[in-house]
Amino acid sequence: MKFIIVDNRTGKNRSFAANGLVIGLTITGLLGIPVLAGVSSYYHGLGEASLNDQLVAKWRDVLKTQQNEIVEARTSARESREASALRLAKLQARIVRLDALGERLTSVAKLEEGEFDFSQPPALGGPLEEKEDDQGALPDYLQLLEQLAEDIESREQQLSILENLLVSRKLQDDVFIAGRPVEKGWMSSRFGNRNDPITGKRAWHSGVDFAGKEGSNVISVAAGVVVYSGPRSGYGRLVEINHGSGFTTMYGHHKKILVKVGDIVKKGQVIGLMGSSGRSTGPHVHFEVYKNGRVVDPSSYIHRTNR
User: What three-state secondary structure class fits 194?
Assistant: First the structure.
């Protein structure tokens, strides 16, 4: 096949011949360009869609992770608040118990009004020094926890002081000489001059006698330390107890002594059994009281009211 090409500017023409194969390839190439472009666009579109799907999936994973972290943070905060609320309730209950105990002890101890007042907050004071930077201030509930902890510490200090006071007072009460040296019996002879039960003559009696059933209990009228335990002329089997502050008591004519030298005895403790040992006409206990080494009338101590 022969082709003629005319140049518009010069008016000249050129001609060339082409066989059927060349013409077929040329036509095929021209027609294939749009097809290739379409195919290329199709596969390019598929690649972008795949990439977008991957990005979306990745962002979804990130969002899910963040959501899980938020849920965990909320749960942790809620548990922390619940734990703080529980601690707060326990501290408040503890303060109530401490106040109740303090008021009870104050009442029992019969302290002066206002000396230990557990129904009122402890008195505080001092100059005000405001902080310039309050950024580190604790949240309200944490401040409340700190305040409760301080209140408890204050109450415990008060109770400790009160306990020491009560212990000291109890020691004073225990060594306070008061009451009779027997659980059962009657006063058979008083302190001072009397007719001697054996000779019948006037004689000095340095104590008070309590008669009773043989073998009945003889008790200490105050706490103290046994300084003598054994036989003594005229007293038979004798127990002597030192109560401190210059006071000593003596208990004579026991059938049996139940304490020994060095023993610490309590008020009301049984120290022996009533008998008639020594210079005696029958079962009784001879009771004497000494103050700073001098014998005194036991009657004023016998009729004392226990503290």
Answer: strand
Copy the structure tokens of residue 229. Answer: 């335990």
**Could you tell me what percentage of the chain is helix, strand and coil, using 3-state DSSP and rounding each to the nearest 5?**
40, 25, 35
* Measured distance CA(131)–CA(135) in Å, rounded: 10
CB 302 within 8 A of CB 208: yes
First-last CA distance in the chain: 147
- For residue 93, is it within any domain? no
Please tell me the predicted confidence (pLDDT) of residue 227.
94
Neighbouring residues of 259: CB distance < 8 A, sequence distance ≥ 6: 226, 229, 239, 265, 271, 272
Q: Which two tokens stand for residue 196?
A: 């001697």
Domain for residue 127, yes or no?
Answer: no
Backbone dihedral angles phi then psi of residue 46, each to the nearest 5 degrees? -60, -40
Q: How many domains does the chain have?
A: 2
Q: Which of 238, 245, 233 is nearest to 181 (CA)?
A: 238
Residue found by looking up tokens 């010069």 in the block: 10
Contact 213, 274 (CB under 8 A): yes
Read off the pLDDT of each residue in 25-50 and give the average, rounded to a whole number.
55
pTM metric for this prediction: 0.52
Residue 138 falls inside a structural domain: no
* Domain final position from 77, 102, 134: 77
The residue ranges of DSSP E strands in the chain, in sequence order, are 2-6, 13-17, 186-189, 192-195, 202-205, 208-211, 217-219, 224-232, 236-244, 247-252, 254-257, 264-265, 270-274, 284-291, 294-296
pLDDT computed for residue 124 by the predictor: 47
254 within 8 A of 236, measured Cβ to Cβ:
yes
Among all chains, which residue has been given the structure tokens 């000489």? 177
> Mean pLDDT, to the nearest integer, of 204-213?
94
Nearest 5°: the CA angle 221, 225, 230 is 90
**Do the domain assignments include residue 100?**
no
